[in-house]
C-alpha cells in the first residue's frame, strides 16, 4: 500500500515537486548569502544607545519606525524635508549603510516557489506540492523502516545497490528535513488561504502616556536604557508632539509600551501565539537567519530531483520485470504447476522465469504469479512451487506480504508443494519468510514433496542443484538456463600458486593474481570467477586489498570433480582469467575493537588481508582449523610476522588430524576465558568457512554469550557477529 501511494504521488507530482525543489534549493542559499552582507555587532547595545547615535548622526530627520530584518539588519523609516524614506542604519553609529540589494534571482525564485508565477491559482499548486511531499516522506519512512527491519534497525546499514540503494540511503538521511519542509509549507499555505491565523489580525492595544511633561531625549528614558537591542524586532517612535503617544517596542514575545516622558513601562501585550508560531514555522521553512539549517534544506531540496528520477527508474524496471510479461504463462484453468514468486529486488522473479521457460519447454503447463496473487481456487493445479526472498528482519517481500492471508482463504485441494527460499546468510533471519510460507503450505496441504531448499546470495550453483532435484522428482529433463545478469568482468593474470596438503590427499592453494588494472576490492569482498567450461561463476572470498596490496589473492580447495577449483588449481603462472567483484559490506574488518576471527580451511582467506592491514595493532585473535600442522601450514610465515608486529594478538590453530584431534570449536572452548573477556569488552566475532563449521561455532558462541546475558542472535542483530559462510 505504502509503496503504491509513494509511486503514484511521486510520479504524478514529479514536475510540480521538481520545480518546488529546485526553486527551494536556490532560496535556501539566501540565508547563507545574507551572511555575506556586512553584519552588525549589537552585543551590549541598548535601544537608548541606538536612538542617541541616530539623533547625533541625523539630527534633522523625523524617525518613525525601526524594523530588524530577517538578515539581522536594522531598517529605519523616516521623514526628511517632508519626504518619506527608508535606509539601513548602523545601530552603533546611527550612520546610514549602503543598501544590500537582493539579487533578482531570489525574487523570481520566491515567486516561482510560492505560486509558480501564476498568482493566487499557483498558490493552490504549491499547496498540492507541499501535501504531496508530506505524503512521500511519510510513506517513504514506512518503506524505509520496512527495508531496514523496523525502528530498532534505524542505524543499521541500508542494503541494496544502484539507484534503489542510493534512494534508500539518501532517504534515511534527508527524510526528516524534507518532512519538516513539507509540513511547514502546508502550514504557510493554510495561512495564506486564511485557514489558519497568522496572528497579524490581532492589533496590539496601544495605551497612552500618563504625563504631559517637557520633551525628554529618548536615550534618557529608563525603559529604553534597559532594553537590549538583540531582543528587539521593531521600534515604533511616538508621533512628535502627540502627548498621548508612547514608545512601542516589539520583542520576540510581546509589544512593550513605554511612557514617552518618564520611560516607565506602561503595559505589555504578548504577541499572539499564532504569530509566534508562524515566526517559528517561517524559520523552519526558510531558515532565515540560521544558515546551518539553510545548508540542510539546500542539500535536501537538491536531493529531491534525484529521488524523483531514481524512483521513476526503479518503478519502470519493476514494471518491465513484472508479472504480466510472462510468455506462455498458462491460464489458471489449464495450469498443472503453479509457481508462486515472492520478490522485492526481482532477482527471484528471474530465477522463477528461467524455471518457467524450462518447464514449458519440457511440455509442462506452468503458471507463474506473485505470491500475493495466490488464487482462491486452484482449479487443476497439482504442484505448487513457492519461490520467495526474505526482507527486513525476516519479513515477506512486497509481492508476498498478503500471501499468508490469501492462502488461508484458498480452497483446500489435493495438491503437492515445495518451497525454495532466497536469502542471505549474513542476516540472522536467514530465509525466514520462505520457512513461514512453507509451514503455511504444510498446514494447508500436508508435507512438501521436496524439503525446503535455501539459496544463499542468489547462488546460481545452488539453484542448478535444486533444479536437478526437481527434474528427478518430475521425471522430466529440465534445461534451466538462468541468466543472472553477467556483471562487467576484468581480466587478471596468475602470478603464483602455493599448494598445501598434498600428503593428505586434498590440496589447498593460495592463488595470487595481478593485472594491468586490478578490480577494486577489499579483504572480505567476494570474487566471481568465470571459468570457461561453466555457465555460472564461482564465488571465492578475497584476502587482499587492491589498493594497498596491488594483487588479488584467494584460497582455493581442490574439490573432487569440482570444475572451477580444479581448473584454478591447474592454471599455469601467467594464465589469464575473467573475474568480477561482489562487494560484501557485511563482512569487512569492523571499526569496533577487538575482533575475534574464526575460520577453517579456505575460510582463512579474508582474515589474512584484514590482519595484514591491521597497522593500528587493534586486538585481533584468529582461531583457525586445519588438518595437520606439517601439511596445512597456510600463511605460517605471515602469521609469525603478524604476531611479532602485533597485528595479530592470538593465533589459536586447531588440527583435526593431529594428536589430540581438535576442531576449531574445541579450540574456542579451550580459550573460553579469553573469549568471554573479549565479548565483555565489546568484541565482534567474524566467522568464515563451511556451513557445518559455522553452525558449530554459533552454538558454542551462543552458550558462551549466555554467560554474560547475550546470545548469538543478539550479537548478530547488533552487527557483532558476522558470517561469511559457503
Ligand atoms: C533490505 C534487505 C533486507 C534483507 N533481509 C533479509 C533477511 O532478513 N533474511 C534473509 O535471508 N535475506 C535477506 N535479504 C536478502 C534477500 O532476501 C536476497 O538478496 C534475495 O535473493 C533477494 O531477492 P529479490 O531480488 O527477488 O528480492 C535482504 C536483502 C535486502 C536488500
Automatic annotation (TrEMBL):
Limits of the FAD-binding FR-type domain: 487-590
PROSITE patterns, sorted: FAD_FR, FLAVODOXIN_LIKE
Gene3D superfamilies in the cross-refs: 3.40.50.360, Nucleotide-binding domain of ferredoxin-NADP reductase (FNR) module, Translation factors
Keyword match Transmembrane helix: yes
Domain of life: Bacteria
InterPro entries assigned to the protein according to its UniProt record, in alphabetical order: Cbr1-like_FAD-bd_dom (IPR008333), FAD-bd_FR_type (IPR017927), Flavodoxin/NO_synth (IPR008254), Flavoprot_Pyr_Nucl_cyt_Rdtase (IPR001709), Flavoprotein-like_sf (IPR029039), FNR_nucleotide-bd (IPR039261), OxRdtase_FAD/NAD-bd (IPR001433), PepSY-ass_TM (IPR005625)
Record bears the keyword Zinc: no
Assigned EC number: 1.6.2.4
Cellular-component GO terms for this entry: cytosol
Domain Flavodoxin-like: 337-471
GO molecular function: flavin adenine dinucleotide binding; FMN binding; sulfite reductase (NADPH) activity
Transmembrane feature ranges: 124-145, 166-188, 290-316
Keywords annotated in UniProt: Flavoprotein, FMN, Membrane, Transmembrane, Transmembrane helix
SUPFAM superfamilies, per database record: Ferredoxin reductase-like, C-terminal NADP-linked domain (SSF52343), Flavoproteins (SSF52218), Riboflavin synthase domain-like (SSF63380)
Coiled coil feature spans: none
One Pfam family recorded for the sequence: FAD_binding_6
PANTHER family: NADPH--CYTOCHROME P450 REDUCTASE, NITRIC OXIDE SYNTHASE-RELATED
Protein name: NADPH--hemoprotein reductase
Amino acid at each position: 500500500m505504502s509503496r503504491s501511494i509513494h509511486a503514484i504521488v511521486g510520479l504524478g507530482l514529479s514536475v510540480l515537486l521538481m520545480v518546488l525543489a529546485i526553486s527551494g534549493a536556490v532560496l535556501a542559499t539566501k540565508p547563507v548569502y545574507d551572511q555575506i552582507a556586512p553584519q552588525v555587532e549589537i552585543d551590549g547595545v541598548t535601544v537608548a544607545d541606538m536612538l542617541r547615535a541616530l539623533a547625533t548622526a541625523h539630527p534633522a530627520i523625523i524617525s518613525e519606525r525601526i524594523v530588524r530584518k530577517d538578515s539581522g539588519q536594522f531598517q529605519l523609516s523616516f521623514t526628511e524635508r517632508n519626504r518619506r524614506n527608508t535606509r539601513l542604519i548602523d545601530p552603533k553609529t546611527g550612520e546610514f549603510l549602503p543598501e544590500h540589494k537582493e539579487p533578482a534571482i531570489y525574487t523570481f525564485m520566491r515567486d516561482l516557489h510560492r505560486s509558480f508565477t501564476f498568482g493566487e491559482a499557483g498558490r493552490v499548486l504549491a499547496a498540492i506540492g507541499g501535501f504531496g511531499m508530506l505524503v512521500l516522506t511519510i510513506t517513504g519512512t514506512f518503506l524505509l523502516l520496512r527495508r531496514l527491519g523496523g525502528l530498532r534497525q534505524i542505524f543499521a546499514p541500508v542494503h541494496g545497490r544502484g539507484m534503489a540503494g542510493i534512494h534508500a540511503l539518501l532517504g534515511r538521511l534527508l527524510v526528516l528535513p524534507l518532512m519538516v519542509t513539507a509540513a511547514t509549507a502546508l502550514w504557510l499555505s493554510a495561512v495564506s488561504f486564511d485557514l489558519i491565523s497568522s496572528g497579524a489580525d490581532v492589533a496590539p492595544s496601544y495605551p497612552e502616556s500618563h504625563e504631559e511633561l517637557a520633551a525628554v531625549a529618548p536615550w534618557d528614558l529608563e525603559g529604553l536604557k534597559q532594553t537590549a537591542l538583540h531582543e528587539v524586532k521593531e521600534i515604533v517612535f511616538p508621533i512628535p508632539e502627540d502627548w498621548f503617544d508612547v514608545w512601542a517596542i516589539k520583542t520576540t514575545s510581546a509589544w512593550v509600551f513605554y511612557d514617552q516622558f518618564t520611560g516607565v513601562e506602561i503595559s505589555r501585550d504578548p504577541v499572539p501565539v499564532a504569530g509566534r508560531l508562524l515566526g517559528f514555522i517561517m524559520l523552519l521553512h526558510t531558515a532565515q537567519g540560521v544558515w546551518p539549517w539553510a545548508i540542510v534544506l539546500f542539500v535536501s531540496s537538491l536531493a529531491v530531483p534525484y529521488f524523483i528520477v531514481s524512483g521513476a527508474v526503479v518503478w519502470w524496471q519493476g514494471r518491465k520485470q513484472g508479472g504480466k510479461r510472462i510468455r506462455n504463462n498458462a491460464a489458471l484453468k489449464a495450469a498443472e504447476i503453479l509457481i508462486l514468486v515472492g520478490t522485492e529486488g526481482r532477482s527471484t522473479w528471474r530465477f522463477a522465469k528461467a524455471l518457467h521457460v524450462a518447464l514449458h519447454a519440457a511440455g509442462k503447463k506452468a503458471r507463474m504469479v506473485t505470491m500475493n496473487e495466490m488464487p482462491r481456487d486452484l482449479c487443476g493445479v497439482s504442484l505448487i512451487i513457492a519461490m520467495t526472498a526474505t526482507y527486513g528482519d525476516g519479513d515477506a517481500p512486497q509481492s508476498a506480504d498478503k500471501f499468508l492471508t490469501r492462502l488461508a482463504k484458498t480452497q483446500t485441494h489435493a495438491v503437492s508443494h515445495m518451497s525454495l527460499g532466497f536469502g542471505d546468510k549474513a542476516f540472522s533471519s536467514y530465509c525466514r519468510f520462505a520457512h513461514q510460507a512453507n509451514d503455511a503450505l504444510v498446514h494447508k496441504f500436508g508435507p512438501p514433496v521436496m524439503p525446503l531448499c535455501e539459496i544463499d546470495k542468489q547462488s546460481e550453483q545452488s539453484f542448478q542443484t535444486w533444479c536437478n532435484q526437481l527434474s528427478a522428482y518430475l521425471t522430466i529433463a529440465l534445461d534451466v538456463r538462468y541468466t543472472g545478469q553477467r556483471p562487467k568482468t576484468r581480466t587478471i593474470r596468475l602470478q603464483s600458486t602455493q599448494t598445501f596438503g598434498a600428503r593428505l590427499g586434498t590440496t589447498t592453494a593460495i592463488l595470487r593474481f595481478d593485472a594491468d588494472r586490478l578490480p577494486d576490492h577489499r579483504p572480505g569482498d567476494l570474487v566471481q570467477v568465470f571459468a570457461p567450461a561453466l555457465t555460472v561463476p564461482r564465488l571465492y572470498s578475497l584476502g587482499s586489498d587492491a589498493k594497498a596490496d596491488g594483487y588479488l589473492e584467494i584460497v582455493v580447495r581442490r574439490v573432487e570433480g569440482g570444475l572451477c577449483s580444479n581448473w584454478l588449481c591447474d592454471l599455469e603462472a601467467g594464465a589469464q582469467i575473467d573475474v568480477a567483484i561482489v562487494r560484501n559490506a557485511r563482512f569487512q574488518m569492523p571499526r569496533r575493537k577487538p575482533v575475534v576471527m574464526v575460520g577453517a580451511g579456505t575460510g582463512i582467506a579474508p582474515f589474512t588481508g584484514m590482519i595484514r592491514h591491521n597497522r593500528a595493532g587493534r586486538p585481533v585473535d584468529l582461531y583457525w582449523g586445519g588438518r595437520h600442522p606439517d601439511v596445512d601450514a597456510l600463511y605460517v610465515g605471515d602469521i609469525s610476522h603478524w604476531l611479532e608486529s602485533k597485528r595479530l594478538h592470538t593465533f589459536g590453530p586447531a588440527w583435526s588430524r593431529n594428536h589430540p584431534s581438535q576442531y576449531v570449536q574445541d579450540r574456542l572452548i579451550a580459550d573460553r576465558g579469553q573469549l568471554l573477556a573479549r565479548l565483555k569488552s565489546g568484541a565482534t566475532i567474524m566467522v568464515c568457512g563451511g556451513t557445518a563449521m559455522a553452525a558449530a561455532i554459533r552454538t558454542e558462541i551462543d552458550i558462551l554469550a549466555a554467560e554474560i546475558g547475550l546470545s548469538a542472535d543478539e550479537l548478530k542483530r547488533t552487527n557483532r557477529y558476522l558470517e561469511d559462510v559457503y
